[in-house]
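quick one before i forget lol
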Amino acid sequence: MLRTAVTTRFLIWTTQRTGSTVFWRTLDRHPEIEGHGEMFLPTMTREDSYPAFVARSAWARLEARAAPTRSVRRYLAELYRAPSGVTAVGFKLMYNHLTPPLASWIAREHPKGIHLVRRNLLKLMVSRVAAEQRGLYHLEPGEAPPSDRVTLDPATLLTRLEKIAAELERGRAFAETLGALPVAYEDLVAQRDATYARVFEFLEVTPSAPAPEPLRKINPDSLSELVANLDEVRETLRGSAFESHLEP
């Protein structure tokens, strides 16, 4: 199938457990958008990922080592091509996947950016802990959600939240250089149609109702249903900058 350069190149700048997989898969279901996941994840095996691009030949592997900026530019020139009718192509770029060659390409090419965040840092952290403990990161439609709860370590809780807050601030600083559109997980849940409408306008595609959720929600909304030692957590966060992230 003939693929040509698209008019809108974008990236979803985000971190883990922000609803980014649901977000990019929903965008991908718009007829004028081609969405991709973590294409620079070192362990990614998809044939259209950067690791697969590098693995195609000995020459590609040599280029990635000796001239990484050129290698990234060649890969992205290929990724940002699409079939007729698709006008916007983008991929998910995690904070910890940004490399100097990628940063160089972004500074030179100025793609559109969408900065996807989760305002409630406690729930973000709990989601990470739950995923790590279970070894389960997503639920396909029809799969049953887990019923077990997680226990948070009060001794490390504040330190972990402070690290996440610092991570988000660094992400915001880079998002500002992109002129990125801010999008919050909480708005995708509470004001889904309006939030996607804003994203579709930003990407310059035809307004459309977003497709149904492509994944099933894995965790309950209530912390009391997910955190086994919530009383300890409340006591630890009392008077801290993160107390407001607890449920009333």
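fyi The longest strand covers residues 8-14.
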